[in-house]
Amino acid sequence: MGKNVRNRDGLWINANVFREEALHYEKYGYYCPYAWGSNGWIKYWQEQKRRCIEGYEVSGSKITGYHYFYLNFNKIKAIDYKTKKKVYRFPDFWDGDYNYFWALDIAEKGIKLKEYKKLRLDLKIKEEDLKGNKHLLLAKARRKGYSYKNAAIAACDYHTRKNSTTIIGSFDKKYAKDTYDKAYESINFIDSNTGFRKQRLSDKKSEYIRSGYIDTTTGINIAKGYLSEIVALTFMDNPDAARGKDANKVILEEMGTFPNAIDAFAAIEPSVKDGDIKTGIMIMYGTSSNKQSMTAPFKEMFYNPEIYDILAVENIWDESADGTYSGIFIPVYLNKPNYYDKKGNSDIKGAIESEKKEREKRKINSTALNNYITEYPFSPSEAFRSGNINIFPIDELQRQLKIVLTNKLYITKGQPVKLYYKDGIVRAKPILDLKTVEPIYFYKQKINNISGVPIIYEYPVENSPQGLYKIGYDPYAQDQSKSESLAAIYVYKTIEVNSYSRNMIVAQYVGRPPEADDANKIALMLAELYNTEVMHENMFLHVKNYFRNKKKLNRLAAQPDRVISKNIKHSSVSRIFGMHMNEQLKDAGEKYIKDWLTEVRDFDENNSPIFNIDFIYDAGLLEELINYNRKGNFDRVMALMQVMFQVQENIEQKYNNKEKISIFEEVNNYLNYKKYGL
Questions:
Q1: Alpha carbon distance 450, 620 (integer Å)
Q2: CA distance 117 to 270
Q3: Is residue 178 one of the residues assigned to a domain?
Q4: Which of 395, 506, 585, 649 has the smallest number of CB atoms closer than 10 Å to its CB?
Q5: Alpha-carbon distance 222 to 241, whole Å?
Q6: Is 428 helix (H, G, I), strand (E, B) or coil?
Q7: Per the structure, how many domains does the chain have?
């Protein structure tokens, strides 16, 4: 690499060599020093066009054509460093933009491995995808200027690629309009100040612009010239807005606002394809939405780029995601205002510390904190968290998940077992050969056999007393539909005298066996093994029917009346066994789980608190708690919620008993006073 542009560590030391035309315009008010139409003028603009198409290299460092156009011919609204006010000026060179524009170039055209390595990108693109012909998907923190960058892409194609069509689309009109307006402003500036200027056949400021002119020499009006165009489309009222349109590029704004980004992608992709042949690419980007129903499809596409023919890059942002691929992510700390130098290098450490302080300010309000983190995330997992829906301590859960995955505690702490009866007593036999069974360790784990297997973290104490253990059970529907719902069962140990292990999950089962009664059988056997009762979500009657047929209704936990009465005024629900879940009880259940997760149970040798969360070894449960929302399938969370209802019922019962004893003592003292004159 050229020592005058970039140093050995990859830091930019003179990136202004890529924006000399912009600097010249800012100083003198014009680009070309030669007279309009002269040979010098023609050669100057031919060279500028070449750079906007092929890119520009100086001393071994190279930027792409779109990046060159963006830096030199596209003004943006940005901070003026002298006045500290926003003005229209040319963009700064940013290290983050260097990566983005190269990713776009590689997705569209491909690159040889040798040349790719020379670029020293911060993005690790999957080697197979270096061939190009891919779409591009980007998730980002807010206020990173991507509407300007993508407007520049549209304006560049309009001025340098004959017969090109760029579609700028969004679900909500305001997003497509915003980027289109920026592209339109860029075109006006270029047509007024450069040799790229084009005549216009159509000029609709809010939706459509086309270059060219009308030739009338034959007596017939014939459209001729460059014939490049930019079209703004909105899909809210017209899902088929792109049908029948061919495009070289489709830029989709704010994918997190599409009700179903996957369906939108499938409907729009034919615009850049002819049969199996790609004739263009789609550039999709956005921030996460607070509406989980909208964010989930965007998230699905981001984490599974290969399925949607999207350029795959190594996920270097999420903890414990080593070796996995995703779309491109732009974290809040990259090119954060006041945290990058004049040469375009991000001060990542300083930006992270600044953001941590911003988060600290919002800790008093969990909803405000969650919303802020979603919009200004460090990682994709933060961007796609459920905003104002998830009240669980996500940062702490992610920390514990990293520990569990790094040390494989889900394997070393848990023993898969086979449950069986011997002499009428339930036994648990360790399964040492896992070739015949597949434990479901992770949330949305993709395995062939989803029947699952029980896992024990701690075997029951001998002659365990009634009440020492609790079981929560979230069943699934009896039919064999295509639902992704699994059965989830958790065995929870409360407090045992002279035992360190307490308030923790000691056994679990997650799976979907061929018959729902197979899961019911596992729930019953775990109840007998740990001498306890099963609290279940009683929407599905097959659980109660199974226990009744086995003459084991005594192993079903009764409805927690105190918990229900506390959270639902004038409740008339009476189902005897289990819980009938509604929004009010889910509110309560979520709070109980949150309180349990963050409960301090001890202190380590450094006097740092140890929480219940530190004793969760189930990676799938941790993942579900991190991603939890009311709309998706979170079977493990719901099973844990059933446990928490039992624990809370016991707390309410003890409280009521103490209250009764206290009242009795007061009455007794009063009678003694009257009797003995005390």
A1: 14
A2: 33
A3: yes
A4: 395
A5: 27
A6: strand
A7: 2
Q: Check: CB of residue 520 under 8 Å from CB of residue 418.
A: no
pLDDT in tens, 601-636: 989 889 999 999 999 999 999 999 988 877 678 999
Residues 534 and 609 in one domain: yes
Let me know whether 332 and 462 are in one domain: no
662 Cα distance to chain centroid: 51
Q: Look up the CATH number of the domain holding residue 48.
A: 3.40.50.300
In a shared domain, residues 527 and 655: yes
In this structure, are 167 and 94 located in the same domain? Answer: yes
Q: What share of the chain is helix, strand, coil (3-state, %, to 5)?
A: 40, 20, 40
What phi and psi, each to the nearest 5 degrees, are found at residue 166?
A: -115, 125
Cα torsion 546, 550, 555, 556 to 10°: value is 30
- Mean pLDDT over 267-295 rounds to 82
Q: Of all helices (H) and strands (E), which one includes residue 82? A: none
Distance, in Å, from the CA atom of 64 to the CA atom of 547, rounded to the nearest integer, reads: 68
Cα–Cα dist 217/129, whole Å: 49
The verdict on 344 and 484 lying in the same domain is: no
Amino acid at 466: Q
Q: 541 and 622: one domain?
A: yes
b/e per residue 193-217 (b: at least 16 CB within 10 A):
ebbbebebbeeeeebebbbbeeeee
* Closest residue by Cα to residue 380 from 307, 443, 347, 331: 331
The alpha-carbon radius of gyration of the chain (Å, integer) is 32
Structural domain span for residue 36:
15-118+131-374
451 with 512: CB under 8 angstroms?
Answer: yes
Q: Which strand (E) or helix (H) includes residue 205?
A: none
The pLDDT tens digits for 173-201 are 999 999 999 999 999 999 999 999 999 99
Conformational region of residue 144, where left means phi above 0, alpha means psi within -120 to 50, and beta covers everything else:
alpha
Q: Which residue type, as a one-letter code, is found at position 33?
A: P
Q: Give the largest CA-CA distance in the chain.
A: 125
pLDDT band at 668 (very low <50, low <70, confident <90, very high): low
The pLDDT tens digits for 347-377 are 999 999 999 999 999 887 767 887 888 889 9
Residue of 265, 249, 334, 330 whose CA lies nearest to 300: 265
Question: How far is Cα 499 from Cα 9, in angstroms, rounded to an integer?
Answer: 54
